[in-house]
Write the structure tokens for this entry.
Amino acid sequence: MANTEVRENKMGVMPIPRLLITMSLPMMISMLVQALYNIVDSMFVAKLSEDALTAVSLAFPIQTLMIAVSAGTGVGINALLSRNLGEKNFEGANSAAKNGIFLGLASCLVFALFGLFGAGFFFRMQTDDPEIVHYGTQYLTIICVLSVGIFMQVTFERLMQSTGKTIYNMITQGTGAVINIVLDPILIFGLFGFPKMEVAGAAVATVTGQLIAVSMSFYANLTKNKEININMRHFRPDGKTIGAIYKVGIPSIIMQAIGSVMTFGMNKILLMFSSTAAAVFGIYFKLQSFIFMPVFGLNNGMIPIIAYNYGAKNRKRIIETIKLSLVIALMIMAAGFAIFQIAPELMLRKLFDASEHMVEIGVPALRIISLSFIFAGFGIVSSSVFQALGNGVYSLIVSAARQLVVILPVAYLFAKFFGLSMVWWSIAIAELVSLTLSFILLVRIYKIKIKPIPDKETA
């Protein structure tokens, strides 16, 4: 019990700037490392051929969907567990953790079946190029069949986040990423006596890093996370707890899954012009992860702080956390915007061995799309505030408006009437719409949930 109270005191009374940094910085670093290994995958695959790079890019919607399900469920686990700890409901916290583990295992089974029976069909829906279909089916089958790594890694990391032990997540994610980076060239090109696996080697390197990371994260939860009990002996799924997790989690899953639909749709639109255009879009997603991942790491530290203090009815700390998170996010996005404006050609040539045709398409694409960074930081932080306060449906509204109502229709119309160079503007336009909606809904949730909390002096 003493350990639990210490953790409660940290979440409830530590100065917000210090608390937010200590909670978020390890996650920001680990997500930067993850962004690095995502780029390294594509860098090495690009050395095989542009078709290989396109295949990996076309697989991205399914990878996005896996991340959506795992991270969305994790958001629900995180919010429920942190809220229970803030309310001193330790039995409820343990139930949230155990049911979260169950949901992670069930999810990876679904994607394993898709990998076995649906990967080839997914690629044939997008292209009839036999080499792209061959590479892509190999890659996606391995990623999905062994998806237990990503699902359980996210689950166990969210348990650590909920109790404030994010430093262990930095260690586990960082280790998995380094293993992936090391294995990539070895398995792709067949170095040191290993067989040359090409694109399949990139997939094997990825899942190997994930499986090692999840093993470490499981051990860390057992030995270091004493605030919660994850012993699954005699466990039975609890419908009420699962419902509470998915009340926040399903809107988050749908919100992120919409990103998968958007990516699939954009790939189809871009393939109307060339496979190179689709490859450029895939490269953009790899590069922008360097900018967005630190903001997501910031949000992962912010969510349990807001959820805890909402459970503890501490309005001042909630508002201070939101304000500071917005400032940090906007600074990160401004830096990303500057990089994309100054060095798009350098990134394409040095990182992806871009051909002249790819550079011709890619340089204006990266500069135009990065205009969306100016607006994106506010929307990302607002979305996580909605989730932390149990209003994940607000995040869903914003995401659906941005990625389905705006991006895809605008991109299609621009493609039909103005050509490829105008398609990229659809993303910046959509982000401006997202900013407007996020502001309106943030004001609304403040009036409904935050403002009514009585003033409370912190110790």
About this structure: The chain has one domain: 2-450. Residues 1-9 have pLDDT under 50 and may be disordered.
